[in-house]
Amino acid sequence: MTEEIQQIISQVDKVIQQKGNTKKALIPILQAIQDEYNYLPEEALRHVCDTTEITPENITGVASFYSQFRMKKAGQHLIKVCVGTACHVKGAGQVYDAFKRHFNLTGDEETDAEGNYTLEKVSCLGCCTLAPVVQVDDVTYGHVTTDKVDSVLQDFESQVGKTGKKSKYRNADGSEFQGEIRIGLGSCCVASGSDEVKKEIEQTIEGTGINLQLKNVGCVGMCHQVPLVEVIDENKKSKLYAKVKPNEVADIIHEHFKPKGLIDRLRSNTFHWLEKMQTDTVWEGVDRYAIDVRDEMVSSFLDRQLPIATEHRGVLNPLDMDEYRSFGGFDALKRILQTDRHDVIRMVKDSGLRGRGGAGFLTGLKWELVEKEKAEKKYLICNGDEGDPGAFMDRMLLESYPYRVIEGMLIAAWAVQATDGYFYIRAEYPLAVTRIRQALINCREQNLVGKNILGSDFSFDIQIYEGAGAFVCGEETALMASIEGNRGFPTIRPPFPAHKGLWGFPTLINNTETFAQVSYIIRNGESRFSEIGTENSKGTKVFSLTGKVNRGGLIEVPMGITIRQIVEEIGGGVQNGKQFKAVQVGGPSGGCIPASLYDTPIDYHSLLEVGAMMGSGGLVVLDEDDCMVDIARYFLSFTQNESCGKCTFCRVGTKRMLDILNRITSGKGTKKDLEELKYLAEWTRKGSLCNLGKSAPNPIVTTLRYFYEEYEAHIEGRCPTGKCTAMITYSINDECIGCTKCAQKCPVDAIKFEPHKKHSVNTELCIKCDACRQVCPVDAVEVV
Amino acid sequence: MIKLTINSQPITVPEGTTLLEAARTLQIDIPTMCHLEGTGHFTSCMVCLVKDTRNGRLMASCSMPAMEGMNIITDDDECRESRKASLELLLSEHVGDCEAPCQLVCPAHMNIPLMNRLIAAGNHDKAIEVVKRDIALPAILGRICPAPCEAGCRRKQVDEAVSICLLKGFSADQELEKGVTPVQPKEQSGKKVAIIGAGPAGLAAAFYLNKAGHQVTIFEKNEKAGGDLFQIEESVLPAKVMEAEFSAILNSDIKTHFNVEVDQQRLEQLQQENDAVVLATGAINGQLKGWGISLSKTGVEVNKDTYQTSIDKVFAIGNALRSSKLAVRSVGQGKEVAFVIDQYFKTKEVKPYPSRFNSKFGKLQETEFVEYLKESVDEKRLEATRGKAVGFTMEEAVAEAKRCLHCDCRNPESCKLRELSDIYGAQQKRFQYDERFKVEKEFAPQNIVYESAKCIKCGICVRITQQYQETFGFSFIGRGFDVKVGVPFSESVEKALEKTAALVAEKCPTGALAKTNTEEQLK
Q1: Same domain assignment for residues B295 and B378
Q2: What pLDDT is stored for residue A1 in this prediction?
Q3: A499: burial class by Cβ within 10 Å (0-12, 13-18, 19+)?
Q4: To which protein family does this belong (chain A) (predicted)?
């Protein structure tokens, strides 16, 4: 036995001692091994089989099922390019390709020749407002573009080995984020002279070393105040200046920013700004969480909102239990411990609360079903396996309101007489896991979790189960299979979990957000909750608003609010003054709602009617530049990848639909393909075993329904938005000033370096990476 | 107890009974593939979908428990369409041939790989039996056939085609040398068939009709049987080979009338005296004009699937339809028309010669040669050293037969995917948009072969090896479309199946896990 293998074996022994030697310890064991080795060495897996009840079949099936696990040795550092929906529409695919080129990776290669970096796509990091996002080990870079690959890596390498506190979230050019100035470029703003103001700002900051991002935003809606200038300083404070004149610019800037060199001193200030995690572009990292009161700027963002799951947002320190209590935290728990549990269930039922995970099953009814079951054990699971690309509600709730979720779980557990609880949290959310872990420790100390809670005869403990990367595990039967140490294969229902769930015991599974709304209902009474919303959809819904919207972020709105209100009033409209085209609701299971249905109210019924569904609550705004066929293709490639592979319709059906969409987006589609696409969409919906497959065709069905002419255009050989690379060519027009920037950027020398001359693109060599267009200072690069 | 109705029949079943079990107690058949009694349900293939008419929902009957008040339909258009759709999806990723390309190319559809295996194993009696199921004149064709089968032979891609034609001739010669036992039909049907013409087509039809127990009479204008074959040179086709093969056929209950020219009047008479008439006259050159038979540009007009002419009970085959130099086609048509007529006698209906569903994947990729060579030998193609007219020696034949790649599936009869594709009219090519999976073959003791590209991921082998606590067993590997069934830690199939090899091969619903020596088509 070599020394290396011996080392592995003793390491594995340690892991097993910690995690246990039963089947249910399998995923935690694999996670621990991968933590150690960066991949799963076969010797380690064999040794697990030799010393536990886990079989080779079991371990191989599980290790190869979850995307978190790697069977091949990875590079020293891991680069994860987020390809979630928000990142996708902002060019994540091209960013990924740029990294691939940088490391000279071909085909399926993932690791560079030196073994320094391994490049991976990841389905969603839940930082949608920073899109496109790239993570290098634990450092997250936002707004990454194809030409920023070098600077991201340079910055990362400059950080490697450095000790001490470092900012975990950085701008793509590697600089510490010093501030941002936003100038409205809506039509009113431009008309009132915002262009001149912009030039003045550029001149003012030049040479001062102040690292500012100057950003154009669309109409903020306050057109009577134009031009508007919003300044976000390094303390993440935002201030809005109305009716700005060019000669006021210098004063404004110096009010907020000091030339470089003083930064460190300033950084010692406590960070205080309300929406750093929750609004566009200023999310500065989740490990700093102090709060300030909003000013005017965010009021429009907040006015339309109604925080229940996110109650006291911007005020609560996530782990400060006293603070949570001071806002009435755990009052609901105390109260229900004195109440008949049937009354609690009735209250939840009467509140009209429906499951927030997507399907919208009446929560109280679910509780009642579990309560009625007689069993020696009952389980309760908080479903935090938010796999939707483009959604991060669960992450936000778990990170920011851990006690509220726990309280909701405790109330439910008491009502249904559950004995054991689980947090099932996605692997990609390490901070949520850390927070919940600490929150549970705090709760145990305070006798809120564990034996005889608050002196009652009610005992209930909660443990954390980390998912390992499988979207399908959001499906409750697959989720339970995963906790039991199996591949996340869904099974047919009935039996429903309420009857026969985890290890055959009655099990209550609710979504994180559902639990987060429970304490409000108990504290304020069911009618307070049911007054909010529409006839069939009560209360509020949390959404992550992302994509081409000015103010993306986590929002909580009353049911019945229209899409237009969300996008225009809360989101501040479409970015860069572009035309609103559609909003993608509900992720891979949802659909695209077009501009013609802008006034559709958000509730379970209305969304189904237009072909979408609530899903878990991702709202991705698409503008005129987004190709709807490409969007459909994007979601199909996601579901195809995430299909568990069990039933024929989902495993092969999603693949064949993707094949057809690939043909169409590469200009090879035919009329017949459209017919077959409809046929497959119909049968995948009707024939699949679980809801992943049944809802997988929704993005296709809705885009076919509302954007049929775009499909037709592709079949005729045109991509109207120029997104489908196989169907477009790049060229340079007469605006070219011969600055050579494009030639310098071109990774394949398709543009000849000719200073002061008009450049041109050699279309034979061009790989359509878009680097030239992005870098051109005069918009001379055209895509046709 | 639970009350429900299935296909309008009420039934009461204990709680926990699946819809499939309930239907089966009513003798209602629902197809399944991934289901295997005693291993728990898995719900993967989805060919067992049935509909609850109360809400129109489709559900997998193999695992859905019967529930109070259900009103189930198992076989309406929607259920059938769902099965066709799932089969077409499964077929789109199923890489394998039900029958070998050579057999599909052969106009007589002869089971070539099976013949090759039997010759290679020295089982020459069985080999000729297999040949004669499809080819009535193998000794003759073994010398004169242009062998379209060899154009289809996969071995041609690797080096050169297998000498199929010579092997067939060899088998026939073996039998002729020993002396052919005259055909003894099990029972006489009492039906009479007149065959006009004793060329390859007529003789073949006579051979199979006689074998099926019908009274056959041949009318031949020449003084002896053979037709166009007599134009072939002695050096290619020695007369004694011909005579031996003809007399082997005619040396039975078949009646022959030589030197009889059949005219229109005689034909009408034969129609009345017989239950069926077969025109195997050879090229007709217009002499049937005015007989009341529809003619096409090339000859007698027939229904391509049944060989029926425009006249009731009169069939036509061979060069009478279209002049061709391909005797093997005429011989094949003789077999097919005999089958059609036999079925007609039995069912009173003229039905097409059955064509079965065939999964096909076309050419091998270069990297796949090695997979197919695992079951073959790396030897050069042999020709008959004694000349084609004499044929292979025993050693040559055995050596050449071993060069066969055995492209055919080993479970052509028991494969449920094939059976259901036939029943539901599934089209394999419909959803084949992308590159196919690569063919891989792994052999294990007890004549086990595992071909992952044929796997439909039903998981039966995974469940069986789990149940029998194999050390390694099979496991699902990966997920989504790329999920594979394989052996953990890249161990061998042999290691995976220490206890369950035979069982797993038997239960696999396709030919993915099979025994190479089952020879289902020999039974």
Answers
A1: no
A2: 66
A3: middle
A4: Belongs to the complex I 51 kDa subunit family.
